[in-house]
Design brief:
Layout (H helix, E strand, L loop, with lengths): L1 H19 L3 H17 L1 H8 L5 H12 L5 H12 L6 H15 L2 E8 L5 H15 L2 E8 L6 E6 L2 E6 H15 L1
Parallel strand pairs: 1-2
Antiparallel strand pairs: 1-3, 3-4
């Protein structure tokens, strides 16, 4: 719970800073790149979160990596996280910033999983249907999972729409077992 509150506060502050300079989307893109870097190079986060490494060394590392590559305000924010010993919340702050940016842009992220890859036309139709249903712009992340057997599952925030054949078969099996 504490991590969520801390991440929300810092993300809101950063989002406010981005709004002042009308660079919300640019900051979001840079933060997405930083998040990808933390996943691709786990040593970066280990160094950033290591309690023995001095704050000044961490801030120097950030400056060497990002100076001239990202807005100075964003670099200062990253250094501020180090000063306040909040660098271990970086990924949560980035996720919360993304949520704020999506809410600001009236965009909903969805995860769509099918047993077979969807054709582009099918994706477009599904996206239009979801946008009509939700009344917001939809960004779909499509994946395949052969274990679904057929159908589709759609995750929208904390909601799950499960129209997979696997779930239907499991429900039928439970009904048959309970009637026996």
């Amino acid at each position: 719970m504490k991590q969520t509150v801390v991440a929300e506060r810092y993300a809101e502050a950063l989002f406010g800073l981005a709004q002042e300079s009308r660079q919300e989307a640019r900051y979001g893109g840079i933060l997405d790149d930083i998040d990808a870097m933390t996943q691709d190079y786990p040593d970066f986060m280990r160094i950033l979160q290591h309690p023995v490494i001095k704050r000044e060394d961490k801030k120097n590392m950030l400056a060497q990596l990002f100076q001239e590559r990202i807005p100075q305000e964003l670099l200062n924010f990253l250094k501020f996280l180090v000063d306040k010993k909040r660098e271990n919340y970086l990924r949560e702050i980035i996720a919360e910033y993304r949520r704020l940016l999506n809410a600001h842009n009236k965009t909903v992220l969805t995860e769509v999983v099918t047993a077979e890859p969807m054709q582009k036309k099918t994706q477009d139709i599904l996206q239009q249907q979801l946008e009509g249903y939700l009344g917001q712009q939809v960004v779909m992340h499509c994946e395949t999972d052969p274990s679904l057997l057929g159908g589709v599952t759609i995750k929208i925030g904390d909601r799950l729409i499960d129209g997979s054949l696997r779930t239907r078969l499991n429900e039928m099996a439970q009904t048959l077992v309970s009637k026996s």
